[in-house]
Structure formats: C-alpha cells, structure tokens
User: What shape does this take?
Amino acid sequence: MTPEEKKAAVKTATIIRTARKLRGWNQVDVAQKIGISQSALSKMESGILIPSVHQWFEFCSSAGIPADSHVHGYLDRLELIRFQEKIDQNDFKIKDIYRVDAGSSARSLAPLIQLLYSEIGDVKAKKFLKELGVDPDYFVDLDNQINFRFFVDLFQSMKKKGLYKKADLKQFTHQVASQKSHGGLFTNYQNANNCESILKVAFSKSEFYEVNFNYKIEESNHKKISFSVSPKEHLLKNKDLMFIEAQEFLNDYRGGYFKSLVDQLNTNKISIKNVNCISHEQKRSIYEMSYS
Assistant: This one.
C-alpha cells in the first residue's frame, strides 16, 4: 500500500469496527453479510486489507451508515442526547462507572480526544483510553454517550501526563473549531458570522453534545457578551460524577473553548481579548467575552 492507501485503510478499518460493535455484530456476522471470510474481515478491521467498492457499499447498506464515513473518519447520527441512568454500550467495552447517569456524548469530548491523539500518537492514545476503561472506538461514533465522570478522569489523566497546563490553554482547546469536533453540525457554525451568532448556534445545539448544563446569553453589546452556564440536578446530586472537583478546570476549559471557537470561526475577524468567569456559584457561573 502507498502511504495514502494506508491512511485510507486505517480510517476504513476504524469505521467498520465501530459500526459492527454499534450493531452488536461479531466478525462472522459481518463477513457473511458482505460475502467474505472472517479472516478477510479481520484483516480489513486491522487496516491490512481494503474492502472492494462492492464490499464497502454492501457493508454500509447493512450497517445503515453513510458510504462517505471513511472519508470523515467518524460516524454521526445527529441524535439529541438524552440523560440515561445506564447506557447500553452494545459490544464496546466500557468501565461500569462511566455507564451510569450519562449526559455527555463523544461529540462533546471530541476536542480532548483529538488533542490526545495529536500529542501522543494513535498507538499510545488508544492504550491511554483503554487504561481509563473505555474502548477507543467508542468515540468514533459522535452520538455515543458516557457520563461526566469520564470527562473529569480524562482531563486529570491528561494533566498528569503533562498534556494540560493552564498557560497552554489555547493549545489545549485549538481543536474545538475542527469539523471532527462537531460532525454534521459544523455547517451551522460556518453559517454564523459574528461572536453572538456563533454562541447562539453553540447554545441552541448544546443538546447534541451534552445535557449536563443550561446555557444562556445574558447580555450583548458591541464590546462584550456575557453568558451563564448552570449545571443540571444530576451533576449537583451525584458525587460520583465529580462535578465539584472539576470546577476550576471547567472554568478554564470553557473559557478557552468558546474563545477558540469564536476566534477561529467568526468571518468578521473580530479579535477576542479574553473570556473570563466573572461570577461563580455552585448553581450558576457567569462568563464575560470581551472583543474588539
């Protein structure tokens, strides 16, 4: 294989594995559906063998996924997230503590997952996620759900590895404006052209990402925008989700997230000076975004 073919094979392999696990199929099931041997499918899932056009379209049709999924490298069902007391992980291996009280999606974690892969490489990143107790393929489907505890544990583990430093917040959040962080919702952001419209898109689409917080623009003028973020009851009541322990990081990360999002996507080239948490209480935080 050429280097380009190898990259394509790896992307295709990831999509096949993810879609198979999502449907609860084993390799024999899929092999029979597309008319190949189980050993041939195993090679496809390892990136050693590329499926023919016929085999690929047959697989996509059976699995109910878009045929161009291998181009993007992710699956996106564009489903609203709903709070689940316990998720069914299908054939993905997930530690039990991350399956209960689930209000986050893989989409909401995409910037951190992408950063992890870009910083330490595919092999080490997959090992890192497995050691945390989650199948790396689980994050390929942007609509898969997990609880807030995983977000906290992921950040703390990345911090221990030196991947997060407060001074490097811009680098830590630079992935938030990539298409892979939003999937099919990315076009909504591209159609927005200023700070307020980008934030309105983000807040109006928030339930495609997670259902842990309520977002609201409080005030907007030609110099600044203030917005509030309020945690929902399941975060406040369930100590196992570690919401309180994550407050300092959340304030920093959220400020960096929205700064990077607006900085990179606004077509009016407005310069964001900063995004600060100006008021913090357990049940509501107020942020102020100033720009010129």
